Amino acid sequence: xxxxxxxxPIQIEDIQIREIQKPAPAGKEILVRIFAAGINPVxxxxxxxxxxxxxxxxxxYIMGSDFSGTVVQIGSDISKFKVGDEVIGSFTLxxxxxxxxxxxxxxxxxxxxxxxxxxxxxxxxxxxxQTALEALTDKLxxxxxxxxxxxxxxxxxxxxxxxxxxIKGAYVVAVGSEKNAEFLKSLGADEVFDYRNEFSTLPNDFxxxxxxxASSEQTLQLLKKGGKYVSLTLPASQExxxxxxxxxxxxxxxxxxxSLQKIVDLIEAGELKVFIDKIFSFKDLVPALLYQxxxxxxxxxxxxIE
Length: 306
Known about the structure:
Elements (H helix, E strand, L loop, with lengths): L1 E2 L1 E2 L11 E2 L9 E11 L1 H9 L11 E2 L3 E9 L11 E5 L11 E5 L3 E3 L6 H5 L2 H14 L7 E4 L5 H12 L3 E6 L4 H7 L3 E4 L11 E6 L4 H4 L3 E9 L6 H6 L3 E4 L6 H12 L7 E6 L3 H10 L5 E5 L2
Parallel strand pairs: 10-11, 10-13, 11-12, 13-14, 14-15, 16-17
Antiparallel strand pairs: 1-3, 2-5, 4-6, 4-8, 4-17, 6-7, 7-9
């Protein structure tokens, strides 16, 4: 089968499709024929910065985290799915596999595809939406009436975070480009702040900040005393956080079907929308990764596995 398998440090421009052996599912695994996969920052960061050891990603490994596809084979202990089911899911960071024609995955990382989404749209849901949900719920504990600042609000995680924060009843200040202001307000953002402006012009009464662009030195001071900050990239200075009497944590998402099913339920109820920026063919993976690296997407970028 065709797959993007990484065997060690490599430049993005040198990544190529390889022919490898088609896998078979073990007891609690299903084998999925991948139709489309979401493209995420880790897909270009890991090879570009040789982050395999830091992220606990043993090589060789197949790139790609989230996907949509069809179950073509089931393991001996499968109880949730059957051959022919259309599913979505996200691999763990240490055991990826979505950039391939076929992939075995634990059934507890997968749910049925939302009935009101295309396979293209569905491929962009798992990782970004679960990251946003876990950050807002488990890490920031967002409550109705709280004031929340969301960085890179028009990006893959940000679009879900804005909507989920509004569903929770928060007052949302979205950071993005001026050209996306009306779009972000349509998602529920109460205010939109242009990322090119000085953060010192923002108020310092936020209850929570979700940061995906490593802006802690500028934004920690915008929190109330006792406020919470979460970074999806570089960790904030604990010394600075303590001096400001706020908490600062850093995390990477945890793939699981429970949180993903909550997302699917919201999508099927029409409460959560999915936005796709660009769709790339499998053979155009390198341009796709470079586009993702540029960091100006409005929504998710998708790779069609053909």
